[in-house]
Each structure stands twice: as C-alpha cells, then as structure tokens.
C-alpha cells in the first residue's frame, strides 16, 4: 500500500503528494554523466596497454562505487522523502533504512513560514516551516511550487476550522431542541386542561339556568 494510504482516516483525501524538487538531483545526474563518460574515455586510452584487462576491471569497479555513492544514494534519498497534504493532516516521511515520520493535524497548525532563495524564486522552490501547537517547528526543505503549496495549506486550514465551527453550532442546536419540544408539549397539555375546565363550567352554568321541569298536578 502506497504511503500514506494506510494512515488516512475515513473520508480523508490526499490533496497533494510531492517529493523534493528535482533540483536536488542535478548534481547526481551531472556525476552520472562524468563517471560514465570518464570511465569509457579512460578505458579507450588504456586499450593498447598490455594489462588493459586489469585496468578495465579497476576502472569498472571504481566507477560502480562512485555511481552508488554519488548517484544512487541521492536518488534513493530523494525518492524516499514524501511530503503529503490531505484534507485533515500534513504527513512527512524521510529515510530508507531508518525512517522518520511526522503527522500534523491541520487544526493544530498555528503558523506557516517560507524561505525562498534567489534560485528558488527562479525555479519555484523553497523551504517550508510548519509551527504547530504541540510539537517543535518542522521544516520541509526544497519544496517544489512553494507558493501553491502554501496557498493550498491556508485554504485547507480555513476549511478544517470552518467544519469545526459548524459541528459546534450544530451540537448546540441539537441540545436545545429537546427542551423546546418539551416546552411545546407542556404548553399543549396546559391548554387542553384549561379547555376541559372551561367546558365543565359552561355545562354547570347551563344546568343552573335551566328552569325546573313542570310537574303534572293531580286532578281532583
């Protein structure tokens, strides 16, 4: 399962998933060209030597070591560094053999700070520092499209706080609703009792005003 799918909550969506800017691979690519080109050129110069086979083996061994240190290791480091923004969190993971991970809820982010160098302004990358309520400030280096990333974070933070305010308002409304229904029910019950009493009084009044029935007098 790709990172960070196994860490997402229900309904949480990934809005941005980035590695550091390709600028960090500029020197590894340059070293790759130099090592490969220099190795072939040196092997061609030594092809007429009587021990050229041994020289070629040495050149190949040295070239493999240099390629691993100067090219493969930086590429693996770049590939294993993740910067992920979701609808609820900011995730960061780095390291291949020894990993370091951070997970910051959007609701705890208090400040965003960016540091863009001269070359960063030209190529559109920079460093982003996230200050949260509980943890120490966390810096993300060589973030590509730093302006868009900061704007996206600001929007998601506002949306997350808006959802929190909406839930609290809804909770207050739901808590007051039963009281309103109880008051309404009590008012209806009192009205029914008053109506019954009024009907009883009217009936008594009618009975009092009704003239006595005329009795048949006996005839003599």
Compact overview of the structure:
The chain has 220 residues and is an alpha+beta fold. 54% of the residues lie in helices and 20% in strands.
Write the layout of secondary structure elements.
Elements (H helix, E strand, L loop, with lengths): L13 E5 L7 H20 L6 H28 L2 E5 L2 E6 L5 E6 L3 E7 L2 H6 L1 E8 L5 E7 L1 H64 L11
Antiparallel strand pairs: 1-2, 2-3, 3-4, 5-6, 6-7
Description:
With 220 residues, the chain is an alpha+beta fold. Helix 1 packs antiparallel against helix 2. The chain has helices at 26-45, 52-79, 118-123, 146-209; strands spanning 14-18, 82-86, 89-94, 100-105, 109-115, 125-132, 138-144. It has 4 helices and 7 strands; from the N terminus they run E-H-H-E-E-E-E-H-E-E-H. Strands 1-2-3-4 form a 4-stranded antiparallel β-sheet, with helices on one face.
Strand content: 15-25%
- As laid out across the biggest beta sheet, the strand order is 1-2-3-4
Instruction: Name the average pLDDT.
Output: 78
Low-confidence stretches: 170-182, 212-220
Structural class: alpha+beta
| Helical proportion, percent range | 40-55%
Tell me the number of helical segments per DSSP (H or I, 4 or more residues long).
4
Features:
disordered C terminus; 4-stranded antiparallel sheet; 4 helices; alpha+beta; 220 residues
């Amino acid at each position: 399962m790709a990172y960070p799918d196994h860490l997402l909550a229900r309904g949480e969506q990934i809005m941005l998933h980035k590695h550091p800017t390709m600028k960090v691979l500029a020197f590894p690519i340059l070293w790759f060209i130099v090592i490969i080109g220099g190795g072939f050129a040196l092997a061609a110069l030594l092809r007429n030597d009587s021990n050229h086979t041994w020289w070629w083996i040495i050149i190949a061994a040295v070239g493999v070591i240099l390629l691993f240190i100067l090219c493969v290791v930086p590429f693996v480091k770049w590939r294993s560094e993740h910067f992920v923004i979701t609808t609820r969190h900011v995730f960061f993971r780095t390291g291949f053999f020894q990993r370091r991970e951070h997970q910051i809820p959007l609701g705890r982010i208090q400040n965003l700070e960016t540091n863009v160098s001269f070359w960063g302004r030209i190529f559109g990358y920079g460093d982003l520092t996230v200050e949260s309520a509980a943890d120490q400030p966390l810096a993300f280096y060589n973030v590509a499209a730093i302006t868009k990333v900061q704007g996206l974070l600001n929007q998601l933070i506002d949306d997350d706080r808006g959802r929190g305010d909406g839930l609290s308002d809804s909770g207050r409304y739901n808590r007051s609703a039963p009281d309103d229904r109880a008051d309404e029910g009590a008012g209806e019950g009192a009205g029914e009792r008053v109506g019954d009493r009024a009907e009883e009084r009217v009936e008594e009044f009618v009975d009092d005003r009704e003239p006595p029935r005329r009795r048949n007098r006996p005839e003599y």
